[in-house]
Structures are given as C-alpha cells and as structure tokens.
Recover the amino acids of this structure.
C-alpha cells in the first residue's frame, strides 16, 4: 500500500521580505514534492508575482478561498488565498498579513486539516506596527495554545535547544531559572527519544564566561543551571553541565552528546555559523518548523534569495509528520 504523503502548510511570512520568493522556489524543489503535499498559505496575487519573478510565470497552483474546503493531491501544489495583502504593501499591512497566515495555518493544524506547519520569516517590527506585540512566530503560536515552548535549532551537525530565545541580553538573567532550564532539558530529552535516540546524552551550557568562575562573574550557573542539571539527572536524564563555550560545542560536534541546551539565542546561532538551519518549536500540539533566518529585506524582490533553509524546514516538517513524531 502506498503511504499517503503528509500535507505541510507553508506560510509565506512577511511580504516585504524574501518569504514569498523562497516559498515559490521551495515548492519547485523535487525533494519537497516527493516528501509532502505542499499547501501555500498566503496571498494569490503576491505568489503569482513571485513565480513570475523566479522565471516560472503561470506555475500551476490550485488556489482555494479562506473559507473553502481545499484538496491537496500528490505531485501538485495547492494554496489558500487569504487575499489580505497587496503587491506593494506598507509595513503594517505586511505585518498584519503575516500574523494572519500564522493563525490560519495554526488552526488548520489544530483541526487536523494539515499534518504539519512550516512558517516563513516574519518582521517583528512590522508585526508590532500591526498591533501584535510578539517577538516572533513561536510566541504567537504558544500564546494561542497557552503552552510554554522550547525552540530547537537543527542543522547537519548540531541539535541545540534554547532556554531563552527572543530575549534582550540585558534581561537574560531574569529568564534563566532552574525551572526554565529543567523544562528545556526535559523537552529536549523527550524529542530525542521520539526521533529514535535510545539513550539521549544532553550537554547543558553556561550563561557566563568561564561558567561564572564560582560566582565571581555571575551566579546563574550556581542558582539555576547546576540545580536544573542535578534534578534532570535524578529524573533519569543523562545531562551534563554547565559546560562553557566553546568546549560544549566541540564535544557535541565530536559525538559525545546528542544535543546541547544553550542559554541564549546568539550563543547557539553563532556556533552554527550560517542561516541554513531549521528551527522546530517543541511542546506545541502540532509539528511546526521554520527557517533559520530573517526577512532579508535588502534582497527582497531581486530573485536571488536562497530557499535552502525553507526547503529544509518543509522537509523536516514532512519527515516528522510521516514518522509520527510529535513535538508536544
């Protein structure tokens, strides 16, 4: 019996950035078409202009209205036209539309009408101008379903989960608590178990230089990180730390650990060193992945944006769904 390909909803992100372009390029990729039935969630006129931009004018997408029952057939691309944008929107319109794509995709996932959701890059400033006071899409989704979440970064070398994600550096210490570090370790361990790692080994990073030097240059390691690691170990989780940078990533790269728990966003992203990674949001009631980069407004509309991260995001969502892997 032929296995049914999962339906992956793909939101196009902020229309002033590269999201629509990389969405158009991604659904042209053979690997995407072989792994899932893609459903674009966006604006039809805008996407038709994107296919024209990348040299595929008239590319066949079967479009449906926002209140219309849709169909997704293998080997074809479908789309839901929310008709809420324009070819040259202002920042507020673009921000509002991006959030509407997100909410619509989330509802399809919650209703079981799609199997996973891959989201395009959004512009946080534009979202805020439209009245949505969120620092990112993960917060939009987690707030809607009233769940705490963990961001997991995935690339060919590393799996890195974040204790804090979209938090200003000056506020980090407020968010690095024993409870939050422990929750991140637990979510990381559960994800690794779901993807088939029999005995996950997790490295937990530090927040301060030299792990705080016994409290001389910061006490997060003493009051939050070490107690969380100890509690995780009492729960049967193979966790080690705190381990300072760069040692923790060197050890993970060598295969000593299956995943790293990092205290903050830039610590993790700088180690990966490129924008081709994928993010997965853990503890949502559905699979959600996203690109590892922003809207890149400086190259939007030029037809030169790389779809690599978007393709990987869609493939990761399709694989998780096809294998029955849940993230929450």
């Amino acid at each position: 019996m032929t296995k049914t390909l999962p339906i992956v909803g793909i939101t196009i992100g902020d229309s002033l950035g590269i999201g629509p372009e990389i969405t158009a390029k991604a659904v042209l990729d053979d690997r995407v078409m072989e792994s899932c039935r893609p459903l674009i969630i966006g604006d039809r006129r805008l996407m038709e202009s994107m296919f024209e931009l990348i040299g595929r004018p008239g590319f066949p997408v079967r479009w449906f209205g926002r209140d219309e029952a849709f169909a997704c057939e293998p080997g074809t691309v479908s789309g839901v036209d929310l008709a809420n944008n324009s070819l040259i929107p202002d920042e507020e319109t673009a921000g509002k539309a991006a959030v509407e794509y997100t909410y619509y995709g989330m509802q399809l996932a919650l209703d079981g009408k799609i199997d996973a959701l891959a989201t395009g890059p959004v512009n946080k400033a534009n979202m805020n101008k439209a009245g949505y006071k969120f620092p990112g899409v993960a917060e939009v989704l987690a707030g809607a379903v009233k769940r705490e979440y963990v961001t997991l970064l995935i690339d060919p070398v590393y799996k890195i989960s974040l204790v804090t994600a979209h938090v200003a550096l000056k506020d980090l210490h407020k968010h690095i608590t024993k409870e939050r570090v422990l929750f991140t370790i637990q979510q990381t361990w559960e994800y690794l178990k779901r993807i088939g790692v029999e005995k996950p080994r997790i490295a937990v990073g530090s927040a301060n230089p030299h792990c705080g030097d016994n409290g001389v240059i910061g006490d997060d390691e003493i009051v939050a990180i070490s107690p969380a690691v100890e509690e995780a170990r009492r729960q049967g989780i193979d966790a080690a730390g705190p381990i300072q940078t760069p040692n923790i990533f060197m050890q993970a790269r060598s295969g000593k650990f299956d995943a790293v728990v990092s205290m903050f966003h830039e610590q993790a992203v700088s180690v990966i060193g490129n924008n081709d990674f994928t993010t997965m949001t853990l503890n949502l009631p559905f699979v959600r992945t996203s690109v590892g980069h922003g809207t890149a407004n400086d190259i939007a509309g030029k037809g030169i944006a790389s779809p690599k991260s978007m393709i990987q995001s869609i493939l990761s969502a399709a694989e998780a769904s096809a294998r029955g892997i849940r993230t929450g």
Summary: The chain is about 40% helix and 20% strand. The domain at 7-148+275-322 is CATH 3.40.718.10 (Isopropylmalate Dehydrogenase).
